[in-house]
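Batch job 17 of 40 flagged for manual review because the log was empty.
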Amino acid sequence: MTRLLLVDDHAVVRSGLKMLLGGHSEMEIVGEAATAGEALQKAEELNPDLILMDIGLPDKTGIEATREIKAKFPKIKIVALTIHEDEEYFFQMLDAGASGYVPKRAAPEELLTAIRAAAAGEVYLYPSLAKLLVRDYLSADRPAEEKINLDGLTSREHEVLTHLAEGESNDEIAAVLFISPKTVERHRENIMRKLSLHSRSELVRYAIRKGIIKA
């Protein structure tokens, strides 16, 4: 059972989501929030498995809310559900820690797929937006020495990279690999340094480009 928190400042949108998701036995809507402040409060009170997060909230952006929630509750998965399909919002939301990004114009099945994927620890990106990651990676002008392949990583670093690209937290990776969260963080730092990556969205782009995860 995936416990969901709906965050959107429009009551009619939240109502529609409840109608859409309420009929699926593997999902339970445990709460709603209309602002970023309420989202943080409800995240602490309800400890949902996953949050559907709008970007255009009245007090703070959904990007800021996502960053704050992931900092305090790293195990909570967040999927952006928004009218914004701009590259700027897309990449910022990934960097903030979102495990999925779905436009509100998407078909209901796309949203359901995103929720199931994120709940399973995967990263889900709406197809047209996933292409932005690949295009951005391929078009980037990098010095030759920055184009390092996976041979530059140890086998353990490759394992950690795979889990990071799928949106898992340090604690979750540590539990799976039977190492400490501090060791995961050290591997993460080494991976980012070796691959000349500077953000989570760059890491996901790299993983898609190398076929580590699928867009």
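Reviewer: the log was empty due to a logging misconfiguration, but the result itself is present. The chain has two domains: 2-132, 140-209. Unflagging and moving on to job 18.
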